[in-house]
Amino acid sequence: DVVMTQSPLSLPVTLGQPASISCRSSQSLVYSDGNTYLNWFQQRPGQSPRRLIYKVSNRDSGVPDRFSGSGSGTDFTLKISRVEAEDVGVYYCMQGTHWPPRFGPGTKVDIK
Amino acid sequence: EVQLVESGGGLVQPGGSLRLSCAASGFTFSSYAMSWVRQAPGKGLEWVSAISGSGGSTYYADSVKGRFTISRDNSKNTLYLQMNSLRAEDTAVYYCAKDAAAGTRDYFDYWGQGTLVTVSS
């Protein structure tokens, strides 16, 4: 199975400042159809997960443009351009290229 | 608007059984594969099981294979998870999640609110 790792696991941030989370996979996530199925999810405290980014860099409907995804192959990044209070929570990367789907361990984002 | 509403969670003794349901609305249910994803208290997300849109294909994590059965009733727009031989390590919030696009590896664009399963004597 593909192993997903994230760093850091804890990320204290200052409001209005940028934040960045790294995600790495143990195998390339390029699928046979040419797409790379790497998603990012946000889970606010007490809430269900919400998908933010799909196929590396595509924002889901309603996701603020301060969130962006990038990367290729095995290395991926989620960036928040200016952190807001509502961004507090845990962020998970997830790969869908290889069966079964696998999530990273999560990165907890909170305010300094 | 897509809505997924889980129910059926509760407290069950080790070795017991429980059936979870997920009522779907706001999309053509039979056109999309569906999954169950769980989250143990204070832990991360773990994919548990998936079923194709027709119900003809099912998939399971090794941790639940042989104990859990996923099914769906497309006439009722409802997804199920029958959980047997429950263990303490099955304690978790169980979410149902919808595939984003049929026939691709694009998963989990919508999630339910979750239902808590507690396995304890």
Sum up the structure in keywords.
heterodimer; A: 112 residues; mainly beta; 7-stranded mixed beta sheet; 4-stranded antiparallel beta sheet; B: 121 residues; 11 strands; 0% helix
Task: Walk me through the structure.
- The complex is a heterodimer of chains A (112) and B (121).
- Chain A contains no helices and 11 strands.
- Chain A starts with a strand and ends with a strand.
- Chain A has strands at 4-7, 10-13, 19-25, 38-43, 50-54, 58-59, 67-72, 75-80, 89-95, 102-103, 107-111.
- Chain A is globular and about 40 Å long.
- With 112 residues, chain A is mostly beta strands.
- In chain B, strands 2, 4, 5, 6, 9, 10 and 11 form a 7-stranded mixed beta sheet that branches.
- Chain B is mainly β and 121 residues long.
- Chain A binds chain B through residues 31, 33, 35, 37, 39, 41, 48-51, 54-55, 60, 92, 94, 96-97, 99-106, and chain B through 35, 37, 44-47, 59, 61, 95, 100, 104-114.
Summarize this entry quickly.
The complex is a heterodimer of chains A (112) and B (121). Chain A has 112 residues and is mainly β.
- Percent helix of chain A, as a range, is under 10%
CA-CA gap between termini of chain A: 36 Å
Summarize the main sheet of chain B. 7 strands, mixed
Question: Which percent range describes the beta-strand content of chain B?
Answer: over 45%
Total count of strands of chain A:
11
- Largest chain interface and its two residue counts? A-B, 25 and 21 residues
Please give the oligomerization state of what you see.
heterodimer
Number of strands of chain B: 11
The main β sheet of chain A shows up as: 7 strands, mixed
Which spans of chain B of ≥5 residues are poorly predicted at pLDDT below 50?
none
| Computed Rg of chain B | 13 Å
Query: How are helices and strands ordered from N to C of chain B?
Result: EEEEEEEEEEE
> Which percent band covers the strand fraction of chain A?
over 45%
Our measurement of the CA-to-CA distance between the termini of chain B, rounded to an integer number of angstroms, reads 40 Å
Number of helices of chain B: 0
The residue fraction in helices of chain B comes out at under 10%
- Structure classification of chain B: mainly beta
Structural class of chain A: mainly beta
